[in-house]
């Protein structure tokens, strides 16, 4: 099947999103399906989007079987760009080696949220008073199936006050020490270099930075020196309020993609290997309901970055906005639905509050994927 592409100028911004998913490539003509990374998703088409500035000038679906012929008609820079995006979509996501533990990305993994804060939007104050109790909560999350415990000591909800780094360190280090001593993989959710250093020295394994290592000028050198993996999240501001976004977005999926692609390039140039980089599109950070829904529907586009994708939708505002303003504590159903949808779109990891329910949902997803493959 051939597709004729419209005339697209060489300076256009080009994006690919896998579409036309199939349960298996078995029985299909050779070359008619491609695999997304090293997971259990195969697809037969690319949705190709081209933007001229903020203006969309093309959006059409190109079959995998006719992809090379179609993109050969583009200007040379865009042909190279399209091939690179397609290669990234299908590139293997290497496992993360975290001490004695290894996290593989052949099936979606769960990151558990453990906030040691008084004011986080959903669980603020729940784990503040007793480091051992907080660590016990982390142990329970790991026992429930979480591959990684994400420990944070500063709320990043809208308008949250900034926390002095000494207080943040005092909150999280005793918890991380207890978890790491028992072999539990830990990531630290922070924007501050000093906190990163303290958390890694306490046994933490991964830095999870909502500013994509842009808030603190020393963050890059800390991560490079530690040789640890890093999660680069999109937020519209690297300042004290990561939600500040006076300019808004043109095309939110493209704008977030461009930002993350640029931050990956900065991290690589500083000496962080690509296989140690993950990305998070930053659902809810300086984004409207329409923006958030567009990001969820466009999530597969971010596979074009060629690194593992983390999706964090647990208990977030868009669930309440679509559920008669349900408070954060009453958003379990929506959180599980978002985690399942993220898995369908290829997310390699989901960040959740409700571990047992999310793990169960992803076990179901894996069972359905396995059954779809074996039934052919």
Could you explain the architecture of this structure?
The chain has 376 residues and is an alpha/beta fold. The protein folds into two domains: 13-90, no CATH class; 96-374, Dihydropteroate synthase-like (TIM Barrel). It is built from eleven helices and 14 strands. The chain has helices at 67-71, 76-90, 131-143, 165-181, 193-201, 219-226, 252-270, 289-297, 317-321, 332-344, 355-374; strands at 13-22, 34-35, 42-52, 55-63, 96-98, 101-103, 109-115, 148-152, 186-189, 206-209, 230-233, 277-280, 308-311, 349-352. It has an eight-stranded parallel β-barrel, surrounded by six helices. Strand 11 (230-233), helix 7 and strand 12 form a beta-alpha-beta unit. It is globular, with a radius of gyration of 20 Å. The model has no long low-confidence stretch (mean pLDDT 94).
Radius of gyration: 20 Å
Strand order of the largest sheet: 7-8-9-10-11-12-13-14
Shape summary: globular
DSSP, total strands: 14
Number of helices: 11
For the termini, the CA-CA separation is: 23 Å
Tell me the β content: 15-25%
CATH topology of the largest domain: TIM Barrel
Mean pLDDT value: 94
Name of the CATH architecture of the largest domain: Alpha-Beta Barrel
Helix-residue proportion: 25-40%
Helix/strand/pairing category: alpha/beta
Low-confidence stretches: none
CATH 4th-level superfamily of the largest domain: Dihydropteroate synthase-like
Structurally, how many domains make up the residues?
2
CATH class of the largest domain: Alpha Beta
């Amino acid at each position: 099947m051939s597709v004729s592409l419209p005339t697209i100028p060489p300076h256009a911004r080009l994006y690919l999103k896998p579409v036309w998913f199939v349960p298996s490539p078995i029985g299909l003509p050779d070359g008619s399906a491609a695999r997304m990374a090293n997971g259990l998703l195969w697809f037969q088409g690319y949705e190709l989007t081209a933007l001229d500035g903020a203006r969309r000038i093309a959006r059409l679906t190109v079959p995998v079987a006719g992809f090379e012929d179609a993109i050969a008609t583009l200007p040379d820079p865009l042909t190279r760009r399209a091939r690179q995006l397609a290669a990234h979509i299908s590139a293997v996501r290497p496992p993360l080696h975290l001490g004695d533990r290894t996290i593989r990305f052949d099936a979606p993994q769960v990151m558990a949220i453990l906030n040691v804060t008084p004011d986080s939007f959903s669980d603020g104050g729940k784990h503040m008073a007793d480091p051992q109790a907080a660590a016990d909560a982390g142990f329970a999350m790991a026992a429930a199936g979480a591959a990684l415990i994400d420990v944070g000591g500063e709320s990043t909800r809208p308008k949250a006050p900034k926390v002095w780094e000494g207080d943040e360190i005092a909150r999280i280090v005793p918890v991380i020490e207890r978890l790491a001593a028992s072999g539990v993989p830990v990531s630290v959710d922070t924007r501050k270099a000093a906190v990163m250093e303290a958390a890694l020295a306490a046994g933490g394994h991964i830095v999870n930075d909502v500013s994509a290592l842009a808030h603190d000028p020393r963050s890059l050198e800390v991560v490079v020196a530690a040789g640890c993996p890093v999660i680069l999240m999109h937020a519209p501001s690297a300042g004290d309020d990561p939600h500040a976004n006076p300019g808004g977005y043109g095309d939110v999926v493209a704008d977030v993609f461009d930002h993350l692609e640029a931050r990956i390039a900065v991290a690589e140039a500083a000496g962080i290997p690509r296989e140690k980089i993950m990305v998070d599109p930053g659902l809810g950070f300086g984004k409207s309901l329409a923006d958030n829904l567009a990001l969820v529907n466009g999530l597969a586009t971010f596979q074009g970055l060629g690194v593992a994708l983390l999706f964090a939708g647990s208990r977030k505002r868009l669930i309440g906005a679509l559920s008669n303003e349900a408070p954060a504590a009453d958003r379990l159903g929506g959180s599980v639905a978002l985690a399942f949808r993220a898995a369908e779109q290829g997310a390699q990891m989901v960040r959740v509050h409700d571990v047992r329910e999310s793990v169960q949902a992803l076990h179901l997803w894996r069972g359905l994927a396995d059954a779809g493959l074996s039934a052919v």
